[in-house]
Amino acid sequence: MKTSYLFPHRLKTISGILFVLSFIAFVSFYTFEQYGNFEYKAKVFAIIGNDGFLGKNDFFGWIENSILDEILATIVIVSGIVFAFAKERHEDEMVQSIRLHSLAWATIANYGILLFCYLFVYGLPFLNVLMGAMFSQLLIFIILFRIKMYRFYTTTQNEE
Amino acid sequence: MKNNIKVQRAIHNFTQQDLAERVNVSRQTINALEAGKYVPSTVLALKLAKLFEKNVNDIFELEDTD
């Protein structure tokens, strides 16, 4: 069966490596960044820009911003999407059904976690929840799908 | 849904790998089919029937739970 939305299999390894590395870098960036020691300022175009919590919103203008996190987020999202939706070594209908199954469960689990956090996390720490929510569904999907595919490939039951 | 792919495969003397290559799926998929863990698409069911020169009904059978 033909599917049009999957990326070529040859991109899988490279995007997988890139995803893991950039994800670790992204998480450590947000863990250690608070002293502003990883800043790389540049002029960026902003549809909506705002410096600080109480500043005025600027619309459609150029603002100064540290762009390291933007670069990392771009790599995480692009490599994550390519890795998650790259063709398998032998793409067939059962792989598709496993993919759909994982995607459905990832969505359910993701919104379960989000609802839990929405109800039990308040104040500023909730910003961290929102930050995590940007990547959680993709991450949960990738983990679930990889586990299921690992089990699928290592089906030991062989010929009689 | 029950199937007798394993029997048909034995009659035609195919390994799981042979059968997988002929209908263009992975060996694991054939394995899951034989174990009753996966219900194939109509296209795959028809391909298997054509390969075994049988009617689809002779290979696949509905169960009470379906």
Rg of chain A computed from alpha carbons, rounded to a whole number of angstroms: 20 Å
Write down the secondary-structure element order of chain A: HEEHHH
What's the domain count of chain B?
1
Major beta sheet summary of chain A: 2 strands, antiparallel
Provide the structure class of chain A: mainly alpha
What is the molecular shape of chain A? Answer: globular
By DSSP (H or I, 4+ residues per run), the number of helices of chain B equals 5
CATH superfamily of chain B: lambda repressor-like DNA-binding domains
Structural class of chain B: mainly alpha
What is the mean pLDDT of chain B?
91
- The amount of helix of chain B comes to 55-70%
Based on the coordinates given, report the CATH architecture of chain B: Orthogonal Bundle
- Provide the CATH top-level class of chain B: Mainly Alpha
Unreliable segments of 5+ consecutive residues of chain A? none
Envelope shape of chain B: globular
Straight-line N-to-C gap of chain A: 29 Å
Q: Radius of gyration of chain B, Cα only, in angstroms? A: 11 Å
Structural topology:
The complex is a heterodimer of chains A (160) and B (66).
Chain A: H1 11-32, E1 41-49, E2 58-66, H2 68-84, H3 93-120, H4 125-153
Antiparallel strand pairs in A: 1-2
Chain B: E1 2-3, H1 5-11, H2 16-23, H3 27-34, H4 42-52, H5 56-59, E2 60-61
Antiparallel strand pairs in B: 1-2
Output the keywords.
A: 160 residues, mainly alpha, 4 helices, B: 66 residues, 434 Repressor (Amino-terminal Domain), globular
Question: What can you see in these coordinates?
Answer:
The complex is a heterodimer of chains A (160) and B (66). Chain A has helices at 11-32, 68-84, 93-120, 125-153; strands at 41-49, 58-66. By secondary structure, chain A is mostly helical. Chain A folds into two domains: 1-87, no CATH class; 88-160. Chain A has a two-stranded antiparallel ribbon. In chain A, helix 1 (11-32) runs antiparallel to helix 2 (68-84) and helix 3 (93-120) runs antiparallel to helix 4. The radius of gyration of chain A is 20 Å and the shape is globular. Chain A starts with 10 loop residues before the first helix and ends in a 7-residue tail after the last helix. In chain B, 26% of the residues are buried. Chain B has helices at 5-11, 16-23, 27-34, 42-52, 56-59; strands at residues 2-3, 60-61. Chain B contains five helices and two strands, in the order E-H-H-H-H-H-E. By secondary structure, chain B is mainly α. The model of chain B has no long low-confidence stretch (mean pLDDT 91). Chain B is globular and about 30 Å long. Chain B has a two-stranded antiparallel sheet with strand order 1-2. Chain B has one domain (2-61): lambda repressor-like DNA-binding domains (434 Repressor (Amino-terminal Domain), Orthogonal Bundle), CATH 1.10.260.40. The chains are: A mainly alpha (160), B mainly alpha (66).
